[in-house]
Amino acid sequence: MDKAKVALFVVLSLLLYFLPAIIAHVRRHRQIAAITLLNLLLGWTGLGWVLVFFWSWSPNVKLI
């Protein structure tokens, strides 16, 4: 693979890995710090990523 493909793969992998934190940030979730921290620490387990992903979609969001 050339360097551009490797760089694209790395960027897409990081975006997918931090998708729960990104969703929580966009939705203005009240527990964004906890979601981001658990995503960072437990996301690699797979089960941790799935749990944090569903947590980021919970209705506990700040209204404007």
Task: Provide the descriptors you would attach to this structure in a database record.
70% helix, mainly alpha, 4 helices, 64 residues
Task: Outline the structure in words.
With 64 residues, the protein is mostly helical. Helices cover 70% and strands 0% of the residues. Helix 2 runs antiparallel to helix 3. It starts with a helix and ends in an 8-residue tail after the last helix. The model has no long low-confidence stretch (mean pLDDT 94).
A few lines on this structure:
The chain is an all-alpha fold and 64 residues long. The protein is built from four helices and no strands.
Number of helices, where a helix is a run of at least 4 consecutive DSSP H or I residues? 4
| Radius of gyration over all CA atoms, rounded | 13 Å
Shape category:
elongated
Helix content: over 70%
> Number of domains in the coordinates?
1
Report the mean per-residue pLDDT as an integer.
Answer: 94
Structural class: mainly alpha
Weakly predicted, low-confidence segments: none
Topology of helices and strands:
Layout (H helix, E strand, L loop, with lengths): L2 H15 L1 H9 L4 H11 L4 H10 L8
